[in-house]
Amino acid sequence: MSSQQKPAPDTAKAATADAADPAAGPRPRRLTYAAALAALEGAALVAGGLWVLVLGLTGDPDDRQQAVTLGITLAVLALLPLLAARGLLLRRGWSRGPALITQLMALPVAYNLVRADSMAIPAGVVLGVVAVVALVLLVNGETTRALGIKGPGRGE
User: Fold this and answer.
1) Collapsed DSSP state (helix, strand, coil) of residue 60
2) Is 78 helix (H, G, I), strand (E, B) or coil?
3) In the chain, how many H helices and how many E strands?
4) Is 109 exposed, middle or buried (CB count within 10 Å of its CB: 0-12, 13-18, 19+)?
């Protein structure tokens, strides 16, 4: 090929690259719903952490240091689902992992709340339903494609 000749652009490769781009097209509703559920869980963790922290500082807890530690821990743990929710909204492939971990961690908590003989039972039921629905949304094929996640053996 001479220096004056230019190769024709490979339109098949360009079309394939556009189809593989996760940012192409509108964000699927399932992805938006999964991000909303993760953000809701993160907000609940922040609220619970602040509530425990305030009660630990102003109330008369059995162990003030333990109450303050729990409040701070819950607030810091809220970062995982909140960052995952932001990543899901921005269609970042890495965000599905933290979102899945959050849901998997929520299931044993929901189970223990349901087994409690108190007013925590409805909270456990709600948490369990939210976690299962979020898991279903996160492993859905449409969500996976929107995030640009390829299955095993499908790498290029």
Assistant:
1) coil
2) coil
3) 7, 0
4) middle
Integer Cα distance of 117 and 81 in angstroms? 28
As to burial, measured by CB atoms within 10 angstroms (0-12 exposed, 13-18 middle, 19+ buried), residue 31 is: buried
* Per-residue tens of pLDDT for the chain, all 156 residues: 555 655 555 544 444 444 445 556 788 999 999 999 999 999 999 999 999 999 888 887 788 889 899 999 999 999 999 999 999 999 999 999 999 999 999 999 999 999 998 889 999 999 999 999 999 999 998 999 999 988 776 665
pTM above 0.85, yes or no: no
Dihedral sign, Cα of residue 99, residue 101, residue 107, residue 108? negative
